[in-house]
Amino acid sequence: MIHSSEIFHQSNSQRRGKHKIFIGMAPGVGKTYRMLEEAHKLKEEGIDVVIGLLETHGREETAEKAIGLEVVPNQEIIHTGIILKEMNTNAIIARQPQLVLVDELAHTNVPGSIREKRYQDVEVILAAGINVYSTVNIQHLESLNDLVAKITSIVVRERIPDRILDEADEVIVIDVTPETLQERLKEGKIYASEKIEQALHNFFQRRHLVALRELALREVADNIEEGAVTSSPTDRYCCVHERVLVCISTYPNSIQLLRRGARLALQLHARLYALFVTRPDQFLTKEESLYIENCENLCHQFDGIFLRVNSTDIAQTIADTAHKYHITQVVLGQSQKSRWELFWRGSLVQKLVRYLKEVDLHVIATQETKSK
Predict the structure, then answer these.
(1) Which domain holds residue 301?
(2) CA nearest 217: which of 56, 55, 18, 29?
(3) With 50 as the cut, is the pLDDT of residue 84 above it?
(4) Are residues 216 and 104 in the same domain?
C-alpha cells in the first residue's frame, strides 16, 4: 500500500513510482471522487499532489472536489486541422510531483499522441519515479471483455491488459449497490438528463449492475489473495475463492470426474483446474494420449486450466499442486487397486488426507474398469 511516510518522501530517482487503482463496476460509483478525497488528505500532510488528467463528465460534486489541487495543463494536438487536448505526460515528468492523479486509465489517446493508450503514459510516469493514482471500470479489463459483452450485450472498445491490475501496488474497489447507482443516475449525477432513460434500459439495468458488481468484487479479491501469497509464499494462506482440482488419469472415468468437478466449480463460483500426473517411465498408447487430449479439451471448454506434471509420486504431486494453486477442493476417482495393493502400499486418499489437512477431498465412486 502507498503510505506517505514510507514512499512519498523518497527521491523520485531512487525508485519506480507506486500505482494505486480505484476500480468500480460502472460509471458513477464514485471512483474519481474517492481518488480526489484521498489526494486532498495527502496534500494536507504535505505531499506534492497534482492532477494529470481529470474527467468530471459534468458532475458538479466531482468538479468541486478538485478545487484546491494543482492541475498540469493538457497538451494541445492538432489533428486534421482540429485542436485536440490530451494529458501532457512530458509536462508531468518535468514537474516531478510526488503524486499525480490520472482519471480513466483505459482511455484511448487522441490521434497524433506519442502513445496510443493512457495506461501507457502512466507506465512512463511510473518509470520516472512518480506515484500515480488512477481510475478504471471493471468492464475495461481485457480478460473480462467477452464476459462483459455477454452480460450487457455491449462490446467495450477501450481496454487495459490484465497485467496493469496485477502489477498495481494497491487496488481499491469502490462499491455501491445497484439500487444506489440507479438512483444516482435518475438524479442526474452520472449522465445528462436526455441520456438517463436510455442508460436505465441498457447498461444500467439492475441485472447488468449485479453481475458487474460481482465481477469487480471477485477480481479485486483475487488480486488481494494472489498478492498476499506472492509477498509471503511460506505463510499459510487464506483463499478468498474456492478452487477445484480434478485429478485425472487414463482411466475412462476421468471424463466423468471432470464433469463432476466442473459442476462443483460452477456451484461454488470457483476456478477449475485439472491435473494429469504421468510417470517419466510411462509411455502412453495412442488411445491413452487421445483420451488425455480429450480431457484437456473438455477442461478448456469449462474455462478450466489443464496441468501436466511428470512425477513418480502421484500423491505428493497432487499435494504440491494443490498448495501451489491454493486449491480448496480436490476431486478424484475411487481407487482401482486391489485390496492387496491397498494393504501393502496404502491408498491415494489416505496419503492426501495426511498431506492436505485443510483441503476438502471428493472421492467419486465409479464403475470398475480394466486397469491400464
Answers:
(1) 243-364
(2) 29
(3) yes
(4) yes
Q: Which amino acid is at 226?
A: E
Please list, in sequence order, all residues whose beta carbon lies within 8 angstroms of the beta carbon of residue 193, skipping any fewer than 6 positions away.
Answer: none
Number of domains in the chain: 2
Which CATH number is 252's domain given?
Answer: 3.40.50.620
130 shares its domain with 21: yes
Q: Please check whether residue 236 lies inside any domain of the structure.
A: no
The H or E element containing residue 306 is strand 305-310
Strand pairing report for 131-137 and 19-24:
parallel
- Indicate whether 191 and 89 sit together in one domain: yes
| Backbone φ, ψ for residue 171 (5° rounding) | -125, 125
What cell does 188 get?
442526474
On whether residue 276 sits in a domain, the answer given is: yes
- The CA distance from 327 to 314, in Å, is 16
Per-residue cell: 253: 472415468
Most confident of 222-226, 292-296, 360-364: 292-296
163 and 28 belong to one structural domain: yes
Q: Which three cell numbers stand for residue 362?
A: 471428493
Three-state SS string over 14-71 comes to HCCCCEEEEEECCCCCCHHHHHHHHHHHHHHCCCCEEEEECCCCCCHHHHHHCCCCEE
Question: What is the Cα Rg of the chain in Å?
Answer: 26
Residue at 136: amino acid letter: V
pLDDT score recorded for residue 10: 56
> Would you say residue 369 lies in a domain?
no
Prediction pTM value: 0.62
User: Residues 212, 290: one domain?
Assistant: no
How does pLDDT run across 113-126, given as a tens digit for each residue? Answer: 999 999 999 999 99
DSSP reduced 3-state for 134: strand
